[in-house]
Amino acid sequence: MANIKSAIKRIRVSERKRAQNKPVRTSLKTYVGKAERLIAAGDMDEASIAVGTAISALDKAAEKGVIHENNAARKKSRLMAKYNKASGK
Fold first, then answer.
1. Is residue 65 assigned to a domain?
2. Is the pTM value of this prediction over 0.90?
3. Where are the alpha helices (DSSP H) in the chain?
4. What is the percentage of the chain residues whose pLDDT exceeds 70?
5. What b/e string do you get for 31-69 counting C-beta neighbours within 10 Å, with b at 16 or more?
6. Domain limits for position 79
7. pLDDT-based confidence at 74, cuts 50/70/90?
8. Residue 87 CB partners (closer than 8 Å, separation 6+)
9. Measuring CA to CA, which residue among 19, 66, 70 is closest to residue 78?
10. Helix 5-41, helix 44-64: angle, nearest 10
């Protein structure tokens, strides 16, 4: 446990931010996973909607600072590559 006042405050702030970011990260995993499952199943109509939702969520999370912008860009790129490969584009 920290002894310095600023370190104690830092722990409190970090815990608060972690609690706020956790649901955003969890929903990201849900959206991306759902899109990947639909792509693998070959349901391209539903997958198109799910990919759009996942990309939107990734952009919002990056904008809020929950994940790094490059992390979001990498996940979007990989998701679109899977989608395009499966749809034959």
1. yes
2. no
3. 5-41, 44-64, 69-87
4. 99
5. bbebbbebbeeeeeeebeebbeebbebbeebbeeebbee
6. 31-89
7. very high
8. 44, 47
9. 70
10. 170
For the residues 32-45, what does the mean pLDDT come to?
95
67 in a domain, yes or no? yes
Is 4 a member of any domain? no
Which token pair is 70? Answer: 């490059």
Structure confidence at residue 88 (pLDDT): 83
By C-alpha distance, which of 11, 52, 16, 20 is closest to 34? 52
Number of domains in the chain: 1
Predicted confidence (pLDDT) per residue in 15-31, tens digit = 999 999 999 999 999 99
